[in-house]
Structures are given as structure tokens and as C-alpha cells.
Amino acid sequence: MGVSADPLNRELHAKLRATNQALERRAGPLRSLNPEREHATPLLEVHRRALVELADRPGCDALTQRLAGPVAHGLCALALAQLDAFPGNLFWDLDLIATSIVSQARALEFEDAIAHVEDQFQRMATLQHLYGQATAINFSYVHDFVYGFDWAKWVAREPSLHARPPTPFSPEFLAHMHARGLELLELIERDDGKYPSLPDDQARNPFEFSREPDDEVTLHRELARRDLIPVPTWDPDASSCDWDLRWRVAFAVRRVEVAHELGLALPTTPDS
After folding, report:
1. How far is CA 234 from the centre of its chain?
2. DSSP labels for 43-71?
3. What is the Cα–Cα distance from 173 to 124, expressed in whole angstroms?
4. Torsional sign, CA 19, 24, 27, 32
5. How far apart are CA 31 and CA 7, in angstroms?
6. Disulfide engineering: 30 pairs with which of 20, 92, 169, 224, CB 3.0-4.6 Å?
7. Buried b / exposed e across 65-102, counting CB within 10 Å, b at 16+?
């Protein structure tokens, strides 16, 4: 199967298009953090691009065809889980997530590769519900996960990972995020100083800058313009980044500094 060949059948085409339309009906135009474009790549194109490299490798035709369905269904499930868990989410890039999962699968045996794709997408979808409005964590956006702020913080805090950090969206990172979510729920249950119990209708903001929608867009687009987004998830080719060096940038510190520059700092540090 060559690069130009499309491994999708009509049913998968229809599912990807219908999911994109459902997202747009509920969330409006799907924004991208790519400094060079306004809107996120449609799911149909994300899917196609994720399978291109695999399709180009000798002997991978059969695997590409078998992965077309799991990748399509996984993308749709993940996007809808994001929408359900974070109905106010603002940026919708999924490009690198898809290519990363396919790249991981490429190194596995045939049946293991298929199971890996299904499992990784399912684990990511589950994480959305753990951190979103369905639990006491109740963050407003999935941005810190999707764009690597959580990943960079995790690696920076774990000296054992510094020599060879797991890549963003790796199984190791997903396992960490699940464990961290359970820790947060325990802290909230104890009414922790940084993560207290909140009214059900109050979104959580443990940061010292505003995360109101307009402020979130302004801040993160400026960060993207300055190359201060840890993981450029809008770029399907970003898997070639030097992750060993990338996490070393003080992204969290720089985000706070830029928020202050833009006048988006909160008057006082919130208890949350």
C-alpha cells in the first residue's frame, strides 16, 4: 500500500466525519494551537496521516489495513471522551497522539500491535473522565495533558527518568497519569490546601493565572508562538523531537511568566 492509498472503507470514513461534525456542533470551530493555522486537523486527515509511515514500510500492508479500524474507532472515542469530560475544551489537536500510538504499535508483533492501539486509545479516553467534570478533580481543559505540560512536569520531578525519559503518550506516561489522578482524588477527599473540595459546579484551577476561556486562548497561543508548548501535538512529525532535551525547558515557569506579561495573573494565589 503506497502513501497515496487510503486504507479506510466507507464506514470508517463516515464515522470519522460524523464524529468531527458532532464535535463542531457542541464545541464550535475546533481550534488548533499550531501557530500557522486556526483549526485542528480533521479526524479523517489525522487518521490518514497516522498510517502513512506504516504503509510506506515494506511488508506493512496487512498491518496498515488491520490498524485502520482500531485507529479510527480509537480517535473517535478519544475525541468524544474529551468533549464529554471537558465540554469547554478549547484546543483539539490529536495529530501526534495518533502517530505516536501507531509508531508504538509498529514495533510489535501483528496481533500485539492491534491490541496495543486499542488499549492505548481506551486508556486515554478513561483518563479524560478521571480528570474531567465527572469526578471531583473537574479541570476545565485537557490542554495540560495533550500539550505536554503534565509530561514535562512528570519527567522533571523523577530523576530516574532523566537519562532516557519515556516519550509523551507512552504507556509509562499514561500509567503515571492514572496514578496521579487517583492521588488527586485522595487529596481532594482530605480537603488538601492546594486541591480542596469544591462545589460541584466549580471548575478547578490550581494555577496562579486565569483560565477563563478567552485568557486560556490568549496565553496558550502566545506560548505556541514562542515555542513554549512542551509537546506540539498539532505536528504529526514531532515524534522525531529530542525529548531528552525537550523536558529540560522550564515550561511551567515560563507559562507563569508569560501570563504575568499578558496581565493574566490572578490577584492572589488561589487556595486551589
Report:
1. 10
2. HHHHHHHHHHHHHHSTT-HHHHHHHHHHH
3. 10
4. positive
5. 27
6. 92
7. bbbbbbbbbbbbbbbbbbbebbeebbbbbbbbbbbbbb
Secondary structure (3-state) at 231: coil
Is residue 99's pLDDT more than 90? yes
CA–chain centroid gap for 237, Å, is 15
Of the pLDDT bands very low, low, confident and very high (cuts 50, 70, 90), residue 4 is: very low
Which run of H or of E encompasses 116? helix 110-131
pLDDT of residue 57 exceeding 90, the answer is no
pLDDT for 8 equals: 60
List all residues 6 or more positions away from 48 whose beta carbon is below 8 Å from its beta carbon: 6, 8
Q: Is 207 left (phi over 0), alpha (psi -120 to 50) or beta?
A: beta
Q: CA-to-CA distance for 87 and 191, rounded, in angstroms?
A: 25
In this prediction, residue 10 carries a pLDDT of 86
Using CA atoms in the order 128, 134, 137, 139, what is the torsion angle rounded to 10 degrees?
60
Residue 270 confidence (pLDDT): 44
Residue with more model confidence, 41 or 5: 41
**Rounded average pLDDT over 239-255:** 93
The grid coordinates of residue 89 equal: 475544551
Whether 110 shows a pLDDT value over 90: the answer reads no
Mean pLDDT, range 204-208, rounded to an integer? 95
